[in-house]
Amino acid sequence: MTAYTAYAKKVFLGRSAYRFDHLMSILSTVLQFFIFYEIYRALYGGEDKVDGITMSMVTTNFVLSLGLGTIFSPDDYFLPNKIWDGSISTELLRPISFKGRMIAENVGNSAFNIIFKFIPVLIIAVLTTGVQAPADAPHFLLFLISAVLGYGVLWTISFAVQMTAFWLVNIWSLITIKNVFVNVLSGSMIPLWFMPEWMQGVLDLTPFASIYFTPVQIYLGQLSYGGIAVKCAIQIVWTVLIYLIGDLLWRKGQRKLVVQGG
Amino acid sequence: MGFIEVKNVSKTFRVSRRRSGIPGMLANLVAPKYEKREAVKDISFSIGQGEMVGFIGPNGAGKSTTIKMLSGILFPDSGEITCSGVIPYKQRKSYVGRIGVVFGQKSQLQWDLPVIDSFELLKAIYRIPDDVYKKNLVRFTEMLDMSGFIDQPVRQLSLGQRMRSDIAAALLHSPEIVFFDEPTIGVDVVGKEAIRTFIRELNAKDNVTMIFTTHDMQDIEKTCKRVIIIDKGSKVYDGSLSDIRERYSSSRSLEVEFMTDTETVPVAGVETEVIDARHKRFIFGKDVHINDLMSLLLQNYSVRDINISEPDIESIIRKIYGGEGAA
């Protein structure tokens, strides 16, 4: 067993220790889903389609983007907490890559979330509001690939923001701002179909739209294969670009490191 | 060229100066004040392989900062460090696999897991071969007497038990260099002794190079031959423990109990302090020979008991910290 799988396993097992918290987090995702669902049902007012967008497309968007959101959930406070309480020093004493360890713990966490959070929420949604089936098998496969790439974008954004903790120590506000951007501009709160056309064009180029909305569009079969290639390329470019920024901050930050508490 | 070579190393932190109270807070928001604090100023030393060095100094002297630079966590602002041919902060990942660090104030163990599970995790992280792991585990469990609590969660251990587990954890991968940062802090007398014995034995048998910071002078007296004293970021002493005594102790004392109430005649160069009618303390400098003084006393008076007290290291260190260290 390598060190990284050991860390992933540790997180996976550790998560099951707090059962009440876990049940409540399922409940909160379900509640969030139903609130969005009810708001849009009221807005639709019994209509089948608004601007050519059906209610079932909207529902599917929420299930998928909230679902992917619960799976991804990178730990935004992984580094900030360690800098804040000084335990960063013990972390740096391990002969492994700190970034690798961040990813490993996140993967362990995601594996837990898929099985114990995403699947229960998906079942509840399918039984109550219904969810559209994927367009076809190839599109479903491409959806999975694009979802992993979306995870890459979300993770690197979190990674880069966390690295500012080397200078700022307390970065709660930055993380909150980041999360507002992610939630609003990624289409997980307001599906991007309802945005004005010029804004959709702008958002398509930002990293945010490529986190959830690209996989959702692929799932629903709204993109041609050429379109899918372009959007996935955008995802890859953003992941690489933001990672490089984060990595630069990581290397500069280590020189700046102040270990708090002696 | 030593095994550990530190050349003209400095490290400065920028600390914000907070003014107190709400007006102070508002003032800080508008115009924060920063000042530079030189944690380490131009320190140089060299340590040979297998040496055991005590690293002492008052709180805030820069000990921990130096240890953190030596272990690759912090980057020095200027100067050079090489440890066993490697620059710690530049080749961190390959270097830290060869060292062990014990922070007395920060546990490296997993809080919720049994001690043995933390060890297993370390085995994976350091890629410790099975046979080495087993051998070290058996050896440390016995030497540190850990068999009674090795499968208990860390949060349920006493401080002494936790510290022993932490020490074992830092040594499982057979490091070449071990840094102990206050390993006996908060541990009782018996526990301290066990830790010191363990450290001595490890140094003697495995030829592990060790650097040891502590505030407990007993730790240093019982483990290290050489000490480096730093104060306010600068090195003020580097040498053997016995030399410190030679150099800084201005006085020794002889406590005498007489058979009967006795008046003594003053002796040249010796200060006499009366404790009570039968007890006297004679304090004298280096120029007086203890033999002469004792025979003088034994010839002229009937003596019941004599007690020689060496100047205790703690009071000497206190003097050095106090600024008399410029010798």
Structural summary, described in words:
The complex is a heterodimer of chains A (262) and B (327). Chain A is mostly helical. Chain A contains twelve helices and two strands; from the N terminus they run H-H-E-E-H-H-H-H-H-H-H-H-H-H. Chain B is an alpha/beta fold and 327 residues long. Chain B has a six-stranded mixed β-sheet. The model of chain B has no long low-confidence stretch (mean pLDDT 86).
Note the main attributes of this structure:
heterodimer; A: 262 residues; mainly alpha; two-stranded antiparallel ribbon; 2 strands; 74% helix; 2% strand; B: 327 residues; alpha/beta; Rossmann fold; six-stranded mixed sheet; four-stranded antiparallel sheet; globular
Counting helices, strands and paired strands, the structural category of chain B is alpha/beta
**Share of helix of chain A, binned:** over 70%
Radius of gyration of chain B: 25 Å
Rg estimate of chain A, integer Å? 19 Å
Shape of chain B: globular
- Give the CA-CA distance, first to last residue of chain B: 26 Å
CATH architecture of the largest domain in chain B: 3-Layer(aba) Sandwich
The SSE string of chain A, one letter per element, is HHEEHHHHHHHHHH
Q: Low-confidence spans of chain B: pLDDT under 50, at least 5 residues?
A: none
Widest sheet of chain B: strand order? 5-6-7-3-8-9
Order of helices and strands of chain B: EHEEHEHEHHHEHEHEEHEEEHEH
Number of domains of chain B: 2
CATH superfamily of the largest domain in chain B: P-loop containing nucleotide triphosphate hydrolases
Query: Largest sheet of chain A at a glance?
Result: 2 strands, antiparallel
The number of helical elements of chain A comes to 12
**Share of helix among residues of chain B?**
25-40%
Task: Output mean pLDDT of chain B.
Answer: 86
- The total beta strand count of chain B reads 13
